[in-house]
Structures are given as C-alpha cells and as structure tokens.
Amino acid sequence: MKALVWHGKEDVRISDVPEPSAGKGEVKIRVQVCGICGSDLHEYRSGPVIIPRKPHPLTGKEPPVIIGHEFSGDVVEVGEGVSRIAVGDRVAVNACLVCNECYWCRKGAYNLCAKLGSIGFAHDGAFAEYVSVPEYTCFKIPESVSYEQGSFVEPVAVAVHAVKRSRIKPGETVAVVGAGPIGLLVMQSAFASGAGKVYVVEPMPSRRELAKKLGATEVFDPTQGDPGKMIHPLTDGLRADIVFECVGKPASLETALKMSGKGARIVIAGIFTQPVEFPFIRMQAHEKELIGSSAYPDEFPAAINFLADGRVKVDSLINSRITLDEIIEKGFKELIENPEKHIKIVVTP
Description:
11 helices; alpha/beta; Quinone Oxidoreductase, Chain A, domain 1; six-stranded parallel beta sheet; globular; Rossmann fold; 2 domains
C-alpha cells in the first residue's frame, strides 16, 4: 500500500509498504481522511521531536515510521479478542498508546502514562491507505459526523482537555492567544463549556476573520499594540479569568500573561520546542496559575458530541483537500511557506 514514511528531518517519502493486518486486540481501518497537524510539521522541520530516537518502550517502534494521527475511517478487519468494534464501523482514533499498568494509567491519567506512545510517531500512522490500531483507541462516530469532521475529533479532544484543565466556570471571561487550528477549537470549546466572552489574539488577518465568524467576542491584532491594554477597557479593567496559549512561542506566552487578570489561570496548549524566559514575579504577585495541558485522557466522547451537535464547527477550518501523492508539496511545504493561507489541510489516501 501507499504511505508517507518519516525517515529523518526534512526526509519524508511516499513509499510502497506492506499492508497491515489486524493483530490480537487490534482493528484494521481503511483511512478516509487524515489531517495535517502542527506536530507533523514539527517532525518534518525539526524531528525527531515526539518520534523516538530508539525503540519505543511500549511499541518497540523506531524510525522509519508512517506519520499521521488526526484521522477517521472504516473498520475492515478485527483481530482476535476484539468485541466492542465491528467491521463496518465508522471510527475516529485516540492517538495515545498506553500501558494500562502504571501509576498514571491506574489513576485514569492515560495521557501521562509512564510508557506513553502515539500513533503516527511511535506506531505507524494514518497517512496511508490502511492502519491497524488497538481496539481501545477506537471511537465510533455517528452518521451525522462526516469523515472530514471525524478527522477533527482528535484535535477537538486536545481543545476540550485544555478547557477542562482550566477549571472553567460558567460566565468566565476567556482569552485565546493564537487562532490556528487548536486556538479556534479551544475558543469554540470554551463557549460550549460556559465561557461568557472569548477574546482572541492573532496577527494573521485571515485567521482573525475566521475567529470572528466562528463567534469570537472580539479579535485583537498584536502587531497594532498591546493586547493586554486592548482587553482592559472591555472587561472593566479585570482582563481575562482564563488565557489559553495556543502557539508555543516566547512572544505568545508574554501576550498570555498580559491578557490575564489577577488570580487568572494561564493554560499552555501550544508546543514549546525551545526554553523560554518568563517573568514569574508577575505570576506570583497576582496569584496567577500556569497550567500545562497535553493531549487527552478521556475527552473523545465529548469531542464527538460537540461535533455532532454543532457546538464546535470545523468545516470552515479546512482550506485545502489533497491526495496522499500531493502531501509533501501541497501539504507540508504549503503550510510552512504560506501559513496565512491555511488553517487545516486534509488528506485522502
């Protein structure tokens, strides 16, 4: 079968590889749609980041590896012992691979598993015609959720988990720094979880426009001034109760701090690949909290419900639909060279 295989930094290749089968406890899926994630771009430009450099302790996988983890498809084969998922089911897949034995797994914090692995990084992924995954990673999607929408279940789960980590209360004021895919999904998930107002900070005009169309209370351009001063008069000087950093850059973290009010919670949803200096005195003096958020332990059902009932809308996030043969030039390179033109590019095998 055809697949996109990661060999090293800026070395990904469309290759013919053996078609997988469903092993014990596994299901084989015909991939319908797989989205290109920022994590995939990190691996392409700077990897290995999440991809293991040596055999992974849970999966034994090391490069080369088929990447891709935001996907939906149809179950075409089930292995021995599979009982919950059947051939013909439409599914989205939780990318987290866990041991189910460690302290964190026993607590239900599967995203913190001592041997955590990820489909598309430590296990062959879904930029391919077929993929085989453990049954426990599969979630059925209703007919009301299209395959394209189903490919968003994974990033919506990331957003929902970030919102849960914020301990949001009904009516609270929220700010989101960065209107990329995760930022836009966090914005909508915050509204769905009870936020009173959600302000968004984004330098790219096209993304600001989309954030506004999707319901942002107000959208700020950080190149035109201090977003902290912009939000100040709109909140009676209180600023935001919760700020989500969804970029992973030093400047965006500084913006998050400026947008946050006294006693605020700042949730880090962006991926930082380099150390960042941070003025902790401004956190301590105003009793602010810095909260990490990584992946998701149990948010797939909520993500599917949000997509099914329209509380989170994703169709307008898709800017381009391409085939697997086009993924390097029209996918990875296009997103890197022209980020202002795209939110999400989805791929069909």
